[in-house]
Amino acid sequence: MKIREIALDGVVRQNPTLKLVLGTCPTLAVTTVAFDSFGMGLAVTFVLICSNIIISLLRNVIPDKVRIPAFIMIIATFVTIVEMVIKKFVPDLYSSLGNFLALIVVNCIILGRAEGFASQNPVGYSALDGLFMGLGFTLALTTMGIFREVLAKGSIFGVTLWDANVFSISFFGTSAGAFLTYGLFIAVFNVAYNAVDRKSRHKLAARLANEEVA
Amino acid sequence: MTAKQFFTSTSFKSVAVLLAIAIVCVTLLSVLNPLLYVEVGGMADFDGIVDGVSFAKAEINAEFTSANGTLTTAAKSTSGNYFGYIATGNKFGDKPNEYTVLAVINGDTHMLEGIKILQEGATSSSYNVTDDAIAMYKSVAIENPNVFDSFAFGAGGVMAGATQSAITFKNAMMVIAQYYATYELGVADPSVEINEKLNALEEGVTYTKGEAYDYEAEGIEVLYHFDSNVDGKMAYVANVTVTETFDSAGKAVELETPATVMVAIVYTEEGASSKVANAIVLSEYTEDTVTVAQYVEDRVVGKAKTAISGLTTKKQTNTVEKAAVRLLALDSFAYSQAGTGKYFDMLATVSDATFAQSDATATTSLGTVLFTATGTDSTYGPVAGIIVTANSAGACPSVTLIALVSTATDEIVAFGFNGSLTSGGYESYAPSEDQLKEAYLGVNVSVATAIDGVESGLVVTGATPAGTETSRTIKNAFTIVAQVYSGNLETLSLGGQDIVNSLAEGATAVALKETSKGDNASVIGVYANADTTVYVVYSLPVGESKDASVCAVAVEGGKIAAVKMIADGSTGGYALSQETLDKYVGTDFTAASLATANIQTGTTNSSDVLHNALLWAATYANA
Amino acid sequence: MDIIGIIIAGLFSQNFVLVQFLGICPFLGVSKKIDNAVGMGLAVTFVMVITCLVTYPLYQYVLVPLGLDYLQIIVFILVIASLVQMLEMILKKFMPGLYSAMGIYLPLVTTNCAIMGVAKIITDATVYTNIGTAVMYGLFSGLGFTLAIVLLAGMREKLDKLNLPKALRGFPITLIVACFMAMAFSVFSLVKF
User: Fold this and answer.
1) Is residue B491 a part of any domain in this protein?
2) Number of structural domains chain A divides into
3) Which residue of chain C is at minimal alpha-carbon distance from A30?
4) C25–A24: do the CB atoms touch at under 8 Å?
5) Which of B175, B266, B568, C186 supports an S-S bond with B87, CB 3.0-4.6 Å?
């Protein structure tokens, strides 16, 4: 059942964007439109999976003293590869993500997972952790991107829903709008999470009570 | 610590592991980099410029580099009729970078549909090319290669306050327009053809189109300016509009429609002072169609010779010639392009002073004042340096004299000649240095007629006319010096005054009207007594005549009373006889009647020169 | 870019935090108290200036001429990490006063994208034509960061006294406050120089 735990942790319980509030810079910067958010999410997911795998493989080789510089080098290499690939094959995304692509290297999520998970777990689990953490990040960013794009531009993934001249709240396209959106998303996520959490705890308690009865 | 302990210590292991990771990482990236490398200006840049249009790389026709920059990439849309280009415009001023610009042109409308700046050339973002400027480029259909040439910049222009960036950017846009118009529309830049013609003139001389020269006046519109790979050689191309021509009898004929002839003039500085101008006719002109004739005029300043080929009728020749001569007649224009450095060099041959240019140049009946300057010489004190070119007084070469006049004593204190006095078969007729010094040094030139008293037949080697001509030419040169120094350029000397006096006794000078300068003749003096008015006219050479001529025409009661030549510029043997000149006597002094006056001399060029002189004098007098 | 332009851009119109979204983690994480915010701001400014001083010549005169600019991310992050490490040691030993004021924030600075961001931004040689402009940019961007984080901390100290809905406590309300700050700062983008 460990896979289920990893998946739940990554996407919900330890959602890096909404629960841990890590990797905030790209979250605010690229969520103006859904496509950029999705692209950034995938780029981070790729780096997470790759760095988690390599670091997990090398976890017994790298001396504890120098683990941070070693992790940083490995992460930086994958970030460079992602940057090169996107620049070559998706130049539009490259120009709209700009410097934030290179800044994945200092995204706390990646170093955090390397330090907190990959360096202590076997390769398979580490890869899954990278995948689900990345998915959690991608999901959060893309939802925010959709929210902001729809409100500010009347479109979704670049597909026009309605004429933006008729209805749009361009505020959500600005930097202030980014802060507000992020704040609201965390608040809503917390409310929902707490509600679900309480329910599941009740369920658990009820089940335990039933078992006791049985 | 033993070696074994060292190699198994955690410190060593740490460093070794870090190094290993670093090496692997760098190697991996180094392998991937060339595979994933994206060149600036790659095809990917074209995507998304125009919605839904993607591009494929196209061959660039030859290496396309113009005076404005280089075209680096050409592309053609895979659907629809679009052309994409990337060009780098030359730097202008102290901009750190060239502008690299990507542009997409709609092949149906020839309009720019997208412009993307791949590399900014501005020193700071506040000088970046503005949206307004880009909109202006997008507003023009690219139907010829020069469409952007006329875009204005600076205050009130496209990009006020950002002139250098603006020009750097414009260069890139011009390259794109040049390439598109030339290769996609087949509209060649007319200057390219002209450039080729100029290059074909002389072996080893190639021309490059330079900054446009803005000159438009008196029916002459300068179109292009070309620099060459030879120092002192340059070309101007102009449209010259002429309104009249001559028929075979030398009569002026008004053209029904003014003819515009494109003429290129190549200026070559020969030696230090003289310029040779070749005029080449580059276009057809209306009236009669002459498909490019080549008309070449070799014109050493103050001395002219023409050789015309390819023109079939005299009328054609004259029309072309007139256009070319008009352009050549813009002496001040030509001189202003030549630079003054060489004149300072010439002055340095006679004086150690540091000179400052003092006066504008002028043309007199005897020749041309090239340059005047003042300075302080270590030997002579304050001096004026005067450089003049005297027209040949016969068949000998013209003479360029550099004279140094002391401003304290008004005396000629030193002089020299630029170029040889003895070229062209006149070696034995040149005066010796001693003879010249004896004659001219110490002459006080405070009056314009100061030189008149010098014996002109000063060199009499063999007593031939040619010898006399050389010394007369030299005397002319000194006379111009006296005229310019005394501030009285147009006072006639060398017997000119005597001729005027013989035509109208006791005549006094009349102030000239502003309109004294015509297309090919100028009234340079008017003298009048109670009943006779004498016009002294300077007339430019025509055809093969060697030189400009100066004549005097006396008018009494509205009719020509007498015509006399003061200086005849005709080629040896074709001088107009007094008998011929007398044929004009009795003719009404009006342009209309002179235009039909018919003199047959057998030497059309000479008679044309006189005809021009009289016609202009009448026009001037009745204006 | 002239010096006035750099000052206005760094402090206001291109504010690292509120306009460019760089250095958000410490902006949200270390802004509970003004004292902490000042320490963090100074540490970031200090490291930013030194980063510019080191990475600008390293990039323009070593990596670019050698054609190794594709190694910039790995080189920059290692340089920044080592710089921070060295700074920490030097401050601890020679300037204990300064160390106690901002030293504890230094390790956090390594993974602060403001530092990496400034190193990346100044690689654009068409705008930052010499090391002087690059370092000035680093300095004023750092001061802009300090300004933003200290202002936020001032407001958060007041927020603590409010009885907020549970869901808004912590990050949400901080982000909403930052939203108003960003609105205020967006006015500076109208300043033309």
Assistant:
1) no
2) 1
3) C21
4) yes
5) B175
